[in-house]
Amino acid sequence: MNLKIRDKFLNLEQPKIMAILNVTPDSFFDGGKFNTEIKVLKQVEKFINEGADIIDIGGYSSRPGAQNISIEIELKRVISNIKLIRKEFPEIFISIDTFRSEVARESYFSGADIINDISGGNLDTEMLKTVGELGAPYILMHMRGNPQNMSLKTNYKNITQDILDYLSNGIQLAKANGINDIIVDPGFGFAKNIKQNFRLLNNLKDFKVLNYPILVGISRKSMIYKTLNIDVQEALNGTTVLHTVALLKGANIIRTHDVKELMECIKLIDELDC
Q: What would the pLDDT profile of 88-107 be if each residue is shown by its tens digit?
């Protein structure tokens, strides 16, 4: 299974690591940490040295109840950092975490390679068309509502089947807009409660029926630290446990704050020859 990214290919036969770089002041774990060029470059260098395949840059916090910000603020946060990373690390793949087509377009022309859309195209009617025109790979995630109200939208008839139907429909819409390289993301923590998140993780293999790479984003999320009654800063061990589960259940890409520990999981599981 290969993902075409510009003039290169990313082989997904082995799990790949997407490292999270939030350039926001209010993200739930690392908000405000990377607010200078030096801090950004040091963190990206650390991620790459630890084994990251993709750097995922976000300028809009999507934690539950996050403040809505303007496109101008989001662009200001991400574009300069994308250009900086592309200049200093020309070989690394970069994804832009945005649901806005204008941010996606500007980011792509500034050096980003992949569009990571938490809304599956539902918060910007121009997103799918824009990604199709760019020819970029597209991460199609399940979410209901928006970051401000999604925690109120957790009623499902059958959560796994409902999300499969959503993603299947999203794939058809993406293909109709000329998007060829698609990654699906069940959207852990987005319009799901804790029990629903665990049910989704347990049923992750069911998403293989879509025949597209599966991305899992559970790093340090509330399903871990609330279940264990700990602080998010203490959630590394729990994150590593659930990353291991996700890998064993077929995740192709895992989005994480902690690259070194995830790389160790991948290496150890590889020795099992599962």
A: 999 999 999 999 999 999 99
Four-way CATH pick for 14-272: 1.10.600.10, 3.20.20.20, 2.60.40.10, 3.30.450.40 = 3.20.20.20
DSSP code, position 233: G
User: pTM for this one?
Assistant: 0.94
Give catalytic residues, as residue numbers.
221, 255
Angle, helix 259-272 to helix 236-248, in steps of 10 degrees = 40
pLDDT at residue 33 above 80? no
